[in-house]
């Protein structure tokens, strides 16, 4: 199978959003996706993009994507966060995910980051095995903490 891994373009965002929705469904969060094509286009392209995105293209269709953004560690310095690496279900096991993962690692190396980090659901054993096989450390003693938009608003209202 032939595919191309490349940096995403603004016009790719509708297909990227479809992959995001597919992932949300896989993670049993069908109704959680609030981002729109317009949000992705505005936030990812322009003078100060909030993220960098790679896509895996088969023919003219995008079958996978990896979305990353810069972070900073007080212990390590520059890092990047891999928000999502998604391969459409029909293409899993073809090497597309590995190719996207490799592109993220090469990008991080080129950027001189000290760490690439991401979260994985504890029940997603195929993903955990893939990451560990590729040298990643799954830190099982850390919990992800989030303050939602509603939580932020509630906090601010108390000030």
UniProtKB/TrEMBL annotation:
Keywords: Acyltransferase, Transferase. One of its GO terms (molecular function) is N-acetyltransferase activity. The keyword Chaperone does not apply. PROSITE patterns: GNAT (PS51186). InterPro entries: Acyl_CoA_acyltransferase, Diverse_Substrate_AcTransf, GNAT_dom. The keyword Magnesium does not apply. This is GNAT family N-acetyltransferase. Belongs to the acetyltransferase family. Residues 3-159 form the N-acetyltransferase domain. SUPFAM superfamilies: Acyl-CoA N-acyltransferases (Nat). It comes from Leptobacterium flavescens.
């Amino acid at each position: 199978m032939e595919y191309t891994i490349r940096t995403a373009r603004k016009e790719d965002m509708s297909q990227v959003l479809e992959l995001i929705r597919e992932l949300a469904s896989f993670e049993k969060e069908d109704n959680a996706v609030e981002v729109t094509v317009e949000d992705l286009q505005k936030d990812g392209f322009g003078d100060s993009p909030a993220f960098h995105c790679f896509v895996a293209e088969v023919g003219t269709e995008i079958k996978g994507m990896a979305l990353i953004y810069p972070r900073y560690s007080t212990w390590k310095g520059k890092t990047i966060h891999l928000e999502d690496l998604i391969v459409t279900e029909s293409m899993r096991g073809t090497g597309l995910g590995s190719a996207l993962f490799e592109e993220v690692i090469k990008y991080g190396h080129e950027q001189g980051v000290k760490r690439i980090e991401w979260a994985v659901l504890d029940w997603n054993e195929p993903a955990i095995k893939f990451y560990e096989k590729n040298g990643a450390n799954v830190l099982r003693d850390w919990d992800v903490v989030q303050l939602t938009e509603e939580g932020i608003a509630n906090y601010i209202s108390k000030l």
